[in-house]
Each structure stands twice: as C-alpha cells, then as structure tokens.
Amino acid sequence: MKAAELLVRALEHQGVDVLFGYPGGAILPFYDALVGSRLRHILVRHEQAAALAADGYARATGRVGVCVATSGPGATNLVTGIANAFLDSVPMVAITGQVPTTLMGTDAFQEVDIFGLTLPVVKHSFLVRSADELPGVVADAFRIASSGRPGPVLVDLPKDVANVEAGELELHDRQRVEPAPPPDGAALERARELLQHCERPVAYVGGGVGMAGAVEELRAFVASSGVPVVTTLKGIGAVDGNDPLSLGMLGMHGSRAANLAVQRSDLLLCFGARFDDRATGRLDGFAPRARVIHADVDPAEVDKLRRSDVALVGDIRASLRALALRAGTDAWRKECLGEKERERMPARPRTGVDAPRLLRALSDRLDDRTFVTCDVGQHQMWVAQHVRFRRPELHLSSGGLGTMGYGLPAAIGAQLGRPDARVIAVSGDGSFLMNVQELATVRRHSLPVKILLFDNQRLGLVRQWQELFHAERYSEVDLSDNPDFVRVAEAFGIPAMRIDHDHEVPAALDRVLDDPGPLLVHVMLDSGSMCWPLVPPNKTNEEMMNGEDR
Amino acid sequence: MTHDLKLAISRVEGVLVRVLGLSVRRGYDPVEVAAAPAPEPGVMVLRMRVESTRPAEALARQLSKLHDVRHVEVVP
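Structure tokens for the assembled complex are given below, as produced in the milestone run.
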C-alpha cells in the first residue's frame, strides 16, 4: 500500500465521512487513492471554499472538518480558511500536497513553504518526511484539532513520500479527547465569594460555551440565578434568543440593553469569551466598575486584554456547575429588562426591502434545526441582531477573521454535515461574489441550500463608515454595476427570484422555508442602508449611535 | 523592559521558528537567543531574552500552548 492510500485509510479510520478539496499535481497520489474509498470528496471550485466548507461542516456537526489542496497556489488558497478556523477556534485538518522532498527548497514548480506560511494561523502543523510517521501524524492531527481550545492543523505531504510503498502500517485508533481539567478549587471559592457580594452581575458569554458543550450548564446557571446575559457574536444561541434574560449581543453593533448592562455592571461573569475589540469598544472604558470572573479553557486568554479578579481556567461546565448567585439582585434584573423593553427597531429604509424586519419575520418561523450562515457586513450584523437562535451551532458567522465569502461555502459544509437540516445562507452583494463559483457545488450535489442575498449595490458597512467617519468621501464602495444575480443563479442551474418591496417578503419566505431544492432570493435594499446601533471607533460601548440624531 | 525565559522544546522541524515567530507576533522582540541540546534525547533548551512593554507571563502562557513546547519558565 502506498503512503497516500494509507492516508486515505487513516482518515477513514478517524471517522471522516466528507472532505472538501481540489486536486492538482503534488496531491495526485492522494486523489488516486481516493478512488474506491468510502470517503465522500466534495469538489469545490476554489480551494478557499474547501477550507471554509470544512469550517462550516465542523461548526454544524461538532466534528473535525477536513480540506485538501495541492501544493503552491492550492495551498495558499486554503490559507484564508485556515486563518478563519484559527481565529474562531474551529477544529479542522487541512491536508496539502507538497513538491517532492528532493525539490523542496529549490523554488520548484508550484512550491511554496505552506508549513512556514501557515505557522501564525495553525494550532499545529506537520511536514510528513516519511511514510512511517503518517499513522501517528493523522491521529495526532485530529486529537490536537479537537482538544482543549480547538483549531486547525496542517498536514503537508510531499509527493515522493505519498508515493512510497508503505506496506501494511498499523493505523492509530481515534484518540479520545480528554475533557479539560476542572478549574482550581481555591479560584472557584473566590468566585463564589464575589458572587455573594455583587449587586449588578452580568454573564458575558462567548463561543467557548458552545464549544465546551456547556450550553445546558449555562442555561441551568442562568435559570437558577436569574443573571442577565449578553453574548458575543459567537456566543449567540448559547442562551435561547427567546429567553427573557437574554439581552442580545454586546459590542460595536450590539444592543443598547446589552451594552448598558455591561457598562453598569459590578461583576462580569465571562464564560468562554476573549474581550475582543469588537465586543469591548474602547478597552479602558469597558465595564469600568466591574470585577471580572473569567472562565476559559485557554489559559492564555486570562489577563490578555482585561485583568481578571478570578480566573477559572479549565472546563467551563465544571465552573458553571460550581457557581451560584445570591438572591437579591431583582432590582438590577428589572433595570436590565426595562432597557431591553425600550429597544426599538431601526427606522424603515427609504426604499427597497426592510432587511432587519425581513430577518425578524424569518426568525419567527425558524425551528431548532435550521442553520443560518452569514457573510460579512451589514447583513451579518442584522442576522446577529434580529434572528433569535435557539442553539449556538445554528449560527455560523465568521467572527474573528471577518471573512467575506464565508457564507456560501459554510452553508455547503453545514448542509453536507447535516443533510436533514435546513440551511440558509444570508449574504450581501459584496461578499457573495467572493465565492460565487460555489453555486456550481450546490448544483452538482443538489444541495437544498437557500440563499438570501441582500443587495444594496454597495459595500454597505464600509460605505456606512465612510459616511459617518470619513466625511462622506465614498471610496470604492459603489457596486451599482452588480450582475443580475437571478440570472447568475439560473446560469448555474439554481432557481432564483427577486423581491423589491416588503409586501413580497412573506411569499419569498414561504419558498425559503418550503422549497425542496436550492433557491436564491435576490433582495433589493436601499443603497444608503445603515446598520444601527453603532459604537464609533475609540468610544466606549455606552456611546452608541442609533441613527436617530442624524 | 526585558524578560528572560527558559524553555524546554522538542527537537522537531520548525520548532525554533514557531517559538520565535510567536514571540514576535505577540509583541515580544527577541534580543538574545541561545539553543542547545538538553541531556534528555529529543529535547532542546532555549534561553531567550525579549524586549516588550507586555508582561512576560502572557508570553509564557502563549508559548506553553505550542505543541512542541514542553516547559516554559520566566526567569526572574
């Protein structure tokens, strides 16, 4: 058996069922070995989409996503997707072909040092120098990708190594991912002490809760303590978006209630979040009167940006089970919920469809088996603000890297990972064209992915910033010569429709929810669309703009 | 200010680039670096002095996460 076949067998042995990739010269041995394998390979039309689809697959299933590319440009095209997985802590194994070891370091055809190139954006990486290493490397790659704080692992395989006759090397079994250790007992004791003496506690919840499988523990803690909850973009759905105690997302485009609660709090209970700048606004003015309990699996997140009073490093589930809030914070809770009731929908746009209200209407009709993926921009923030998610894994959004072009490949990955689920990709006219070629993948596999394409004929969020902070000096944000997206979709064999007015929304949503196959809905928006609220750069989160003073 | 760190690292491909690259990326500029084999096979000892306005412990925690780093200590 050649080493390349051994790699295929090792992936099967790890329980891989689907992988996303694109063949090429240096990875030919692997593609040869795929013939007759039980692995389902999904041919994307650009390697970036392979990595982003693997990311979507991983988020939707909780399993490790796998992508494959050849050396050189194939490998460099993966980099954005690998970086996306790194910044959002998504378990991924990326396999790249490499030129033969005898040619490495000679600027050979399609040679690039992908091992070196990806060092800043991988959890770990392997350059496989001999076939004997392969079984151990594959098992280690999957274990490292999914343990602790998950992340991407690169396996670079030179072509001559892939072609070596490896015999019948024994495969390594899938290694059990050990749960993170519980937090330090003395730290838990100090946390309980803080909880006994606070008046204005807020739970600040990030993506780490969902990844730690701590959703039930968080909900039990929230239900028993009555603590108001704010979430980051990636924490959305950790508490049910319909829970009265959920104040919504905090930060730059967060809700007024969430931001005010954090700014007024005297104790911030941070669960699996990392004080990212989009969440905190001006850091030295963030939650200025709050003590901080920081629970996270990653010790390097503690005190990285905000000094904690108590660090609970380890299994978030164990922290949540051990904590309880004293009674007597009812007045504070009422204050927070009062601010939530004062939240108003943004003003209706002058023309076109009202995207926030469309998303509200969609949200009202969603069940707990509908995944929504996003691209990046105004539409992404509207989804975060207006769709109420019941589970964190149902909301797939590129948070850390902010990768335009994420939505469609992520939807493909999610749909292949969860074939029985409904998957809706919400995109913008800027983002959509960054991976539009993947409509061919949707078509080839008859994936019933639905695409809601919000088209304001602009790079809306950049345009908004230029309007507000660059004296309306609009620079390279006009996309008014966009193609006819309905015809684009139809050219790929995907049914499509266009809506221009709010009264057309209910019928369009009927089709999004009920059509058995794929569908693109081209939604025309006002070209001056704005996303409110907005915390301006270098301002604290209470200094939000809501558009009403303009 | 300068910080001194002592690391035990696995002697594997790319480990020095990994450690130094992470240090630079996180805002710590290596000004003195010395690596030598440790008595234990497959292990190297890396001593490094870095300049940064950030605390040494934050770098130590980041370095500890590298798969090929076995031990990190901040030398007082």
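Chain B has one domain: 2-75. Chain B has two helices and four strands. Further analysis is deferred to the final report.
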